[in-house]
């Protein structure tokens, strides 16, 4: 009966600021991960979204929802949160931060026309993650910001192109990320561009050097 009640009513999940009890780990990751570094340097150079000042909060979720809610972002505090009882690997923390920080960018780093253009991009280039969002998140949720966050977290080459086209990242950032995350596609693009226009695209070493400049600033 207890299990049935749990399945029907859900359970309470406690969220705390991501840096609470973690020292400078989140800030360290925000400087070391290439994608996080360039986004934080541009949209939150002081790393205020990683502050411990936000109040903890509880949220009741169904068991099917929990695995998609490793973190949270609160617009009132502008702070990224983690699940108090979840043990995270470094990769999971990177993904959590990339996803939740994307919410911050959506609300405070993008103009309405950029958000509208991203919605059109999702219509033209749909992803299976949109179905997960609509089947997992409750009615009334802001599906658009979740689409953006999940797509940035799992960005495809076409998504990186759109982020650059909308000036959310720079073309140089896009090329550097493409070379690191999709070296095969970047190499193919290099050959095509060289044949058609003589334009050089970054090698993985050049991409790494470009992204490391964010860490040095």
Automatic annotation (TrEMBL):
Polar residues composition bias: residue spans: 195-206
Region (Disordered): 188-217
Composition bias type Basic and acidic residues, residue spans: 207-217
Protein name, as recorded: Uncharacterized protein
Organism expressing this protein natively: Geomonas terrae
């Amino acid at each position: 009966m207890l299990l049935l009640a749990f399945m029907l009513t859900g359970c309470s999940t406690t969220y705390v600021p991501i840096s609470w009890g973690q020292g400078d780990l989140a800030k360290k990751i925000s400087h070391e991960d290439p994608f996080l570094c360039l986004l934080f340097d541009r949209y939150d150079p002081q790393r205020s979204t990683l502050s411990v000042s936000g109040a903890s909060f509880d949220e009741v979720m169904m068991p099917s929802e929990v695995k998609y809610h490793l973190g949270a972002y609160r617009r009132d505090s502008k702070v990224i949160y983690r699940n108090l009882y979840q043990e995270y690997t470094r990769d999971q923390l990177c993904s959590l931060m990339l996803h939740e920080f994307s919410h911050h960018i959506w609300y405070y780093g993008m103009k309405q026309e950029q958000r509208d253009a991203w919605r059109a991009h999702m219509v033209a280039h749909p992803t299976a993650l949109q179905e997960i969002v609509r089947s997992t998140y409750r009615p009334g949720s802001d599906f658009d910001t979740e689409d953006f966050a999940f797509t940035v977290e799992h960005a495809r080459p076409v998504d990186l192109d759109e982020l650059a086209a909308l000036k959310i990242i720079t073309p140089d950032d896009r090329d550097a990320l493409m070379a690191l995350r999709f070296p095969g596609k970047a190499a193919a693009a290099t050959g095509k561009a060289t044949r058609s226009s003589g334009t050089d695209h970054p090698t993985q070493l050049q991409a790494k050097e470009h992204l490391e400049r964010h860490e040095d600033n």
